[in-house]
User: Fold these one by one.
Assistant:
Number 1:
Amino acid sequence: MGPLHGIRVIELAHIMAGPACGMMLADMGADVVKVEKVPGGDDTRLSVPPEIDGESAAFMMMNRNKRGIAVDLKSDAGKKIVRRLIDSADVVIENYRKGTMQRLGLSYESLAQRNPGLIYCEISGFGRTGPYAQRAGFDLIAQAMSGLMSITGEGPGRAPVKCGAPITDITAGILGAMGVLAAYVHRVQTGRGQRVDTSLFEAGIVHTFWQSAIALATGAPPTAMGSAHPLNAPYQAFPTADGWITIGAANQANWLKLLDALEAAELQQDSRFTDNDARMQHLDELEQVLTSITRERDTAEWLRRFEVGGVPAAPILDVAEMHADPQTQAREMITAVNHQRLGAVQTIGHPVKYSATPAQVSRGAPQYGEHTREVLAQHDFSTREIEQFIVERAVVAGP
């Protein structure tokens, strides 16, 4: 029984941002029905490799905990089906290009007339208003235009670099889920639903809080700094004798602890490094001095010393190492779900822990049309109607 148990969600979304929103709500206990297009389904089903025995690993990651149906939204019967599902739903999620839902007769305005309490979450590339509202949205484009690529990478004069993860897709999904929950509180208080509108562009912008603070205060946009921090030092990665380590001595107390662990007390008297302001003004020199020291020992030895000395530090793990890390395991961030065809499949766990209403990752991603018959029957379509829909190809019913 997650915190959203009893809430009914219709996900008319594909690829990543919309499905990420639906996944968050499903993890928290909402009954999320994913409506896939006929033919083909969610395009992420074709995002292979990698695959597990013919099933897209990417699709399975983004769509666990959901039931799935396949509907031809261009057919009259398909529209009838989806409207009936939405009539009793609490939430609709969609991330199609502007105008698509209107052309299908599934706009917020038309659906809210039938279901005034409906919360209608729209996730798009640039939002539903403004001069770019018609543009398609992709993570790469949003990272470029939000400023993220200007502050990511090794520094001025080097090639632009995007964050390795599709950070605007994922964050837009999380912002969408946050907006849905806020709108649900409003509905509890008033009985009225509303539209929730967010975008990949805005998801990128919210990751520039520090850099925007600098630009708004100084008028000068900050640039990429590698792993360094724009406001505090030392706060970055340093090479060791056998790899790399991150050190977060971002305040004066931790700076002094770091000097103890490095056995470099003489740096306390160096006027270039006396306080954070001085260290930021001499960041290149600070990096050179500390690098000459950190290269003297291997990563494990530095980690041991920093742990004893109370210095914030960490190894740089790859994704597989992160999966195996004991803290990842203790927080249940890698878990297994049961897929209808494959059996147990590993996936990422839910990132928020609740003391009274724990979230649960318990259902594998649906096969194409897996729950079509089940969901339609729950919405009072007769067996005869369902079979006729299948014959007409208005829906696809999986195994």
Number 2:
Amino acid sequence: MYKVGFITLGCKVNIYESNALEQELINNGFSIVEPSKYCDIFVINTCSVTNTADQKSRQMVSKARRLNKDAIVCVLGCYVQTSGLKANELDADIILGNGNKLELIPLLKQRIAEKQEKYVSVIDIMKKRDYENLEVTTYDHARAFVKIEDGCNQFCAYCIIPYARGPIRSKKASDVIQELKRICSMGFNEVVLAGIHTGKYNDNGIKLSDLIEQILIEVPELKRLRLSSIEINEIDEKLLQLMEKSNVLANHLHLPLQTGNNKILSLMNRPYDTETFLKKVKEIRKVRPDIAITTDVIVGFPYETEEDFLATKEFIKEVNFAGLHVFPYSKRNGTKASTMPQINGIIKKMRAKELIELSNELEDNYYKSFVGKEVEVIFEQRDNMGLLEGHSSNYILVHVEANDDLIRKNARVTLLEYKDGMMFGKIVE
């Protein structure tokens, strides 16, 4: 039995696709193991979101070859898709871009049988129109992810992903429903809908809010449904109504802001302004007053002045996010922003540090506001203190004394204390 070691870089979609490929390989008689010198085959699912990600992808290919020079090295994904002729130079045996990853299994079988020369296949992803239905059938964690969409049409000035993933393609709604039913039958209580641009899901006119409505009706056993990320302008009236009516929808939204300054938003080619963002947040809080809203923020984007940065900081306070993911702007070759005047790296780090400190303050304030309240927690694992931990609907990580039989299950918890950045609670008897 051939031993296959996977090395996966990048986002949750990459992780999902690697998990799906692992299962396909197992179904075809391969064995999945940790990457080591004992692997017969390495599969490296690459990332290309930044220049650094490109470099790390190349390094992982070299590492695999060093571990076992005689192994079959397979390189897949975004770096291959965006690197052009550089992909051909990789010391690998099978090289596939995005959109045809399922070809890996027959190619491996052929390689083993015939020992043919290097195989490289990078399709024109911009012409890709059909959804490649990679589907995970086993899960390592208490929360299951379902990929429902691929591709992006936004072309933000800092982002290479539309060139790596191609135009938007969506999984059939009926397939999503069946996958969710299967996941629930396996004992999972929480599912996260994920994609490259999840909010643009569209299966022949069935939009994301329509899909969610179908899920709530057709998969009544599902306890919690979470969205990985959604743009503010993609929250329509139906989704707001569903949030008001159903507590199955998680009390948490991740709404990427990127900057709180309209000049920079325009330069970034983001599809909203700060006024639109704030107005929609108020509409969301009208139906979910205590919802956790988190966001992404990029600091040090080209042309961002100190005044622009301070405006972003004030806007973040006004929105009152529950937490931030802060990124110093990283130049990505091949994007529009890479041709703009770049800001000094020290300035970017200082601004990032300021926003990380603000994020910690906002998160502390949000967590403290729930001390003494009851929440429903789905438990995931034991922490390093021996306590059971899990997330509430509004994504508060809660630690309690409880038995392992609660893992993957939900229970009411009274939140007792928030200390040193951790929330402790007690199971409601």
Number 3:
Amino acid sequence: MVKSKTQYICQQCGAKYSKWAGKCENCGEWNSLVEQMVQTESGKSAVAKSSSSGKALVTQSIDSIESSDDGRRYTTGISDLDDVLGGGILAGGVVLLAGQPGIGKSTLLLQVTANVARHQSVLYASGEESASQVKLRAQRLGADESDKLDFAASTSADDIAATLRSGQYDVVVIDSIQTLSLEEVSSAPGTVSQITNSSNVIIRAAKQTGTAVIIVGHVTKEGSIAGPKVLEHLVDVVLQFEGDRYGGFKIVRAVKNRFGSTAEAAIFEMDDKGLSLVKNPSAALLSERQNSDGSIVFATLEGNRPLLVEIQALVNPTHFGYPKRTASGFDLNRLNLLIAVLERRTKLDLSDKDIYVNVVGGLKLGDPAADLAVCMAIASAVAGRKLADDLVVFGEVGLGGEIRRVKATDRRVAEAKKLGFKGALAPIIDKKITFIHGVKDLRQALIDYLQ
């Protein structure tokens, strides 16, 4: 008879305990005990059983393997999202979509399932909302007209896996993995043990039947996906839904994709009809810009897509002994580093100044090419001087104040030309490119181009 029980294993040293404790007595680590399900057979250990029951693997050469994957993909009805996924939802693929509460994960998936259900059978399984709640959203989004879109309210991973194994659905959406539980595991939904085992059961069923599965995942307050890291390793695609849930643009990008590139991004905005693609985000971001001191247009990349955004800086005398530095949409540690470079490599004195930096539109910049734009914005705000209206800025700043090259210069320049800009303040690349005003170091950029 097989008995199921749980034990707590330290993720640092592997020590095992019968109950949870805040601290591992063996290695001294805090909050490292994780609940795991263990199955043993009466009178015989699992290790002893496996040592005698295994069979030699049947192998074959790589060149003799015939691919059984026909590469079927289901279009989401949203072109940019298809690009992020590598061409659409792959049959048999498992996608994990994670994002902050209220950012629009359920809204996006209901729109996607409504589009997919025009040609394929789709199941939307929700453990967070009732049928009536989902129906209200579907009516608002116009997603209630397909007879191929079914709904089920369930928190049982066993039941959902059984439905997958039936093979009657092409695409299944699970909202969310943190609400599911297996009957054999005694812990509460959302624990490490439940998430790991529920995901394994569902993914195994999806691979057996070739059903595409989209799983919604919660995020922690730090923005990382909640639950064990193994969840991201189990799935084929991990999509991150970023942005401000109260307004501004929202971005879907792939941080892992076994079937395509991770360099694509889809940009959305929310309205009363749901999420809609932003066709020209650069124009939308710059439509209300006023060219004043502290305002710089930066040519960045969201995935492979070039984008022009406005970076604003405000500098005030500090009224306390310690100057304040605040950044919205830009890494604060990077901002402090750039301020130190400005003070050391130029004649600007920022030691008694409060500095505030903002990226317009709610975007979060991780592009190293933003360095020069941030430095120019701060210097412009301090000196009360402006950059020319027809210039965009991009370039990485080194600790010596030098301006370093960045990737995809041609795409940044093309986007700037498309919106009517006459030049780009950037690292020196090729003197034959008249559009680029090459600068060698930060001091030269401030002296020559701030008017």
Number 4:
Amino acid sequence: MNSKFSAFYNNSRGNIATAAALVLPMLLCVGAYVTDYVIMFHQKAALQEAADAAALAAVKELGLVGADEKLISSVANSYVNSIFNEASTVSGDNTNLKIVDTPSKEDSQVKIDLSYTWTPFLAHLFDYRVTPIEVSATGALAGNSLTCIIGLMQPQRLAKSSIHLDDRSIVQANDCAVFSNSVSRYGLRAVSSAQMTAGTICSAGGVLTLGWRAKAQFSPSPITDCPKIQDPLLQRPAPNVTACRTENNNREVNTDTTLSPGVYCNGLTISGNAKVTLSPSVYVIKDGPLIVKDTATLTGVKSTFFLTGANSVFDFQSDTTIDLAAAETGNTAGILFFEDRNVPHSFDFNPFDLDNLPKDIRVHKISSNNARNLLGTLYLSNSILLVDADAPVADDSVYTAIITGRL
């Protein structure tokens, strides 16, 4: 018996397996604990990135006329979901994300509070604070002046001004600011009896007024050498562009109809005396123009036009009726016309010969004498916006903001 016990006692076979059986659960626990904290670290970093970016982008838009708390809240939510989805280590896991945003027009700030609930392996047994993960970010706007017009274009060989008022043109931007970002001494140009009224008129360069008998008038007098203003919509994500349906290719509408959202390739023309109504959502005008001509009517609410590809410009001719209001939610909230930032474009043109422009110059035209309601922002950073109607434009809108290369 003693010899058998001694043999068992001195037998070393299976020692490693025994030790492993004892240590493995401990190693698994440690591994799960470490994994929990790695996940928590990355998710908190993703949350903070989303909160910071959303607060910064949303507060920039807070300074744009028409950006009320409801719109900014929608924008902030879109930013958070988009950015967190990209940065998160758990793909598409936005269902456990709680967003509390408190935009304040009065205080000119946006506060973003984010809370993310998750299920750790073990960490919550030792520290209840690991879930939910909570972060906060606040963006504050310097100054409290609302902005309604920004001319972004920088001086070119011939075209120097980013805002140009000609002949008898009148711009009324009561209680909000107009900015010309052109640093040329002709950054803001007004000819003959043109008039501009605004809360503030600011030119990064100078101001040029011309006229033999009547001289252009500004109220108040423009401030020169202002700091250039940043594009407040620069971080706004562009809509997705899907395939074009056959019936929407180079489409012309000349009878009364209701259009559905989607991609309209090679342009969309509304003609005759057609009365066309837009169903709410996003309309992508791709590789061709949006033209409303003859005596046609275009109306729509809660809708956005996304303009992408070559020649994706709009042209509202003189006898037409245009009555449009922008989307209220989502990535395009508050934007009536959203021009793709990547469209081919140039600003190298002769401003005194607008009838013979190079093909790479993008010009959006509002000549309609019945375009009284354009509710939302015209975001056309790579283009010229030419307004040459004989009747007031957008004067019935609750607000109309313009961000364009050159007005």
